[in-house]
Design a protein that fits this description.
single chain; alpha/beta; Rossmann fold; eleven-stranded mixed β-sheet; globular
Length: 548
């Protein structure tokens, strides 16, 4: 039962008044939330609230500490503009994902809300942006929640700390922590935002018991993080993971699965930054650290610390210890066409390709070459990396949720449109987002432009409907489109091609091969898993009894 309906039963007139927006002199909506009074914007039939702080600024001595909930403010907070993005590298516009420069700040832990003006107990979608845990922001134009909110749901988008600000681990940081741990600050930010939603969203017309988390790329990874973290239990009722990746995670203090400890990685980074200690790091300008850390080779990951995360994501799902919630998961057919840095170069000849694969995949080489033949090496290389990261993860999520009795819905986004196909970027990574958000006119400058034809608008409306109805009911339904069957025993999925087309058994053979590879690597204990596949793969560990 939603908070609003509970209050009706209780007859709390004062509480009901607090849940109902009032209006300022300029007709902007004003909400009296538990966090404080908020003034937003009227946007047709929607109320929009931008840049609401959910945590105190993590600056100075609070840099690299768990987020502290924002104190109740007095007066009226003007939620009429997006908050700054969290610190990240910014450069020239060079690829389809490059945005115009954004305002940056360490005081960046804010969220945005789009709500129907008449919302009462509406289901809630919490959107987590992508960007490799290194970049991105909820203020990116394509994440406009208006079209989804117009379907009768409340949409929330959040910022979280990125790069070394969000994931640095150090012995000094662990020592000053009451729990003896460090790292994972970006994930703790996401959890803090979800707690803010639980406490406040009813005032904006949302139902805190019907929250769905959703994210794409690193946002999809974040969705899996939240599904596996015990600290996030009970904060959401459904999950969506778009182009997520169930890669290996480092441990806090020991080398594990071929990865150095997070603390060791942090110490090496501190040395490269010419900092003698934590105090030196905290004194360095944020803009310097944001650029210097990735230039020094630092890659942000969540850390197995025994508190935020108790084990590898694959193990948590194997044990059925993940969040028991309905799930939607999927990937795009051409994930790597815009992420070519993740794929090795094409060998000089087909013979070289096959020789390398046989040296790396040993007894699985024949299975590999059937799936990824040398007849089209470039396409096979892209598909190998796609499947090692995204396709295998999506299918695994669907299988594991089905195994614990939860409904799971799988998709492959394979939609063609002229500008992308002409550029050789068919169904590239994140290409579903303008359709999901109905934001053809809000894509980055170099994004292949989508013409708002009748067919494209219809396709976009269908995707928005499927997502909104999953948030509402746990079933993705679009009124004028085919039913989307659950993955279940038939291994069903939705093929988003020219139109939505239900099908079964996506990419036959792909899951079995990649599952065996990951299982052998984990059993070996010295080899990470992720995009080190295909030509970039280390020799495959021997067969293991636990992989039967």
């Amino acid at each position: 039962m939603s908070l609003f309906r509970c209050l009706l039963v209780a007859g709390s007139v004062a509480a009901l008044i607090a849940l109902s927006p009032s209006y300022g002199a300029d007709s902007n909506p004003v909400v009296n939330a538990p966090a404080g009074t908020v003034e937003g914007l009227s946007q047709g039939t929607l109320h929009v609230f931008l840049g609401i702080p959910y945590a105190e600024p993590p600056v100075g001595s609070m840099r690299w500490k768990a987020p502290v909930p924002k104190a109740h403010w007095t007066g009226v907070f003007k939620a009429t503009d997006f908050g700054p993005a969290c610190y990240q590298p910014q450069g020239p516009i060079t690829n389809v994902y490059s945005e115009e420069p954004m305002p940056l700040s360490e005081d960046c832990l804010s969220l945005n809300i789009w709500a129907p003006a008449d919302a009462r107990g509406a289901p809630v979608l919490v959107w987590i942006h992508g960007g490799a845990l290194l970049g991105g922001s909820s203020r990116e134009p394509v994440y406009d929640g208006s079209k989804l909110a117009a379907r009768g749901i409340v949409v929330v988008s959040i910022n979280y700390r990125l790069g070394m600000f969000g994931f640095l681990a150090l012995p000094e940081l662990s020592k000053e922590s009451p729990l003896g741990i460090s790292g994972n600050y970006g994930v703790l930010d996401e959890i803090a935002a979800l707690k803010w939603v639980q406490s406040n969203i009813a005032a904006f017309g949302g139902d805190p018991s019907e929250v769905t988390i959703d994210g794409q790329s690193a946002g999809g990874l974040s969705a899996i993080y939240l599904m596996t973290s015990p600290l996030a239990r009970g904060l959401f009722a459904k999950a969506i993971a778009q182009s997520s990746y169930m890669v290996s995670m480092p441990a806090l203090k020991v080398e594990q699965d071929g990865m150095p400890s997070s603390e060791d990685t942090g110490v090496k980074l501190m040395d490269k930054l010419h900092a003698s200690n934590l105090a030196d790091l905290r004194a360095m300008p944020a803009e310097k650290l944001a650029l210097a850390a990735p230039m020094s080779g630092y890659i942000p990951w969540a850390t197995i610390d025994g508190h935020v995360f108790t084990g590898q994501m694959v193990d948590i799902f194997d044990k059925g210890e993940q969040a028991h919630v309905p799930l939607m998961a999927g990937f795009t057919q051409g994930e790597i066409r815009t992420l070519r840095v993740l794929a090795p170069p094409v060998p000089a000849s087909a013979a070289d390709y096959e020789k390398t694969i046989r040296e790396r995949y040993l007894d699985l080489a024949d299975d590999f070459l059937k799936l990824y033949p040398s007849s089209n090496m470039q396409e096979s290389i892209w598909q190998t990396t796609r499947d090692g990261l995204y396709s295998w993860t999506a299918v695994r999520l669907a299988k594991k949720q089905t195994a614990i009795g939860e409904p799971a819905y799988l998709y492959m986004f394979d939609h063609p449109y002229p500008a992308a196909d002409k550029a050789g970027l068919h169904a590239f990574h994140a290409s579903e987002l303008p359709y999901l958000f109905g934001a053809f006119d809000k894509t980055p400058p170099l994004w292949p432009k989508i013409e708002a034809t009748q067919d494209e608008l219809k396709f976009s409306a269908a995707m928005t409907d499927y997502w909104a109805n999953f948030v509402r009911t746990g079933k993705p339904v679009a009124a004028t489109e085919p039913d989307w069957p659950a993955y279940d025993t038939t291994e069903a999925y939705m093929h988003f091609a020219a139109t939505p087309e239900p099908s079964t058994h996506v990419l036959p053979g792909m899951y079995k091969l990649n599952e065996e590879v990951v299982c052998r690597r984990e059993a070996n204990g010295h080899v990470p898993w992720g995009w080190n596949v295909g030509l970039a793969s280390p020799p495959l560990p021997a067969q293991s009894p636990q992989c039967k």
